[in-house]
Amino acid sequence: MTPRDRRICRKCWNAKITPVYHPETVTVQYDGEEWSLFIPKMPVFQCPACGHQPKGWGRYEIGQVVNHALAKKAGVLMPDEIAAMHDPDVYNYRKIARAITSFSGKSVYWASISCWEDGMCVQGRAMDAILRRYRRHLQNCKERTAE
Ligand SMILES: [Zn+2]
Questions:
Q1: How many angstroms separate the alpha carbon of residue 57 from the centre of ligand 1?
Q2: Residue 47's pLDDT is what?
Q3: How far apart are the CA of 9 and the centre of ligand 1, in A?
Q4: What total number of domains does the chain contain?
Q5: Distance, CA 60 to ligand 1 centroid (Å)?
Q6: Per-residue DSSP letters for 23-54?
Q7: Å from CA of 24 to ligand 1 middle
């Protein structure tokens, strides 16, 4: 017996739900403002046989695509740039959060960092400024120890 495939369309049972991509403009709230974002390849999850679009599918992928476009337009650090700040050998969100908090005096929750790096949320511009200052601080420390 083959395991039940969750992607099989529950409407026609004939095909697997797959993403198709089309351009779309979305409006999101960010930093208290409304942002209009053009997404050239927005994923839409649907059944190729009957066209059924199950609700809630691809929430993660769609969230990442939208937040990527938002971070780019807002000019803030991208998820991979935030992830690249930290030493991969001592990767611990709680430690990172404590370090940024003691550096900036502004409390940062560890789950926020994980969310930014995942592309599931975008740091506000005030927080982005803190992250950039912290990144510069880390670079300075590294240069000092290299000398
Ligand atoms: Zn179907």
A1: 14
A2: 96
A3: 5
A4: 2
A5: 22
A6: EEEEEEEETTEEEEEEEEEEEEEE-TTT----
A7: 23
Question: Does 142 have pLDDT greater than 60?
Answer: yes
Res 79 pLDDT > 70: yes
- 32 shares its domain with 62: yes
Mean pLDDT on 81-101: 88
Residue 7 within any structural domain of the chain: no
> Ligand 1: distance of its center to the CA of 8 in Å?
8
Instruction: Tell how far the Cα of 70 is from the centroid of ligand 1, in angstroms.
Output: 33
Spacing, Cα 56 to ligand 1 middle (Å): 16
C-beta atoms surrounding 135 within 10 Å: 16
Distance 64 CA to ligand 1 centre (A): 26
- How many Å lie between the centroid of ligand 1 and the Cα of residue 62? 21
Range of the domain at 56: 18-74
Q: Which secondary-structure segment (H or E) carries 102? A: helix 93-104
Name, in order, each residue with C-beta under 8 angstroms of 10's C-beta and a sequence gap of 6 or more. 52, 54
| Arithmetic mean of pLDDT, 10-29 | 95
* pLDDT for 145: 82
Indicate if the alpha-carbon torsion angle 69, 35, 106, 145 is positive or negative.
positive
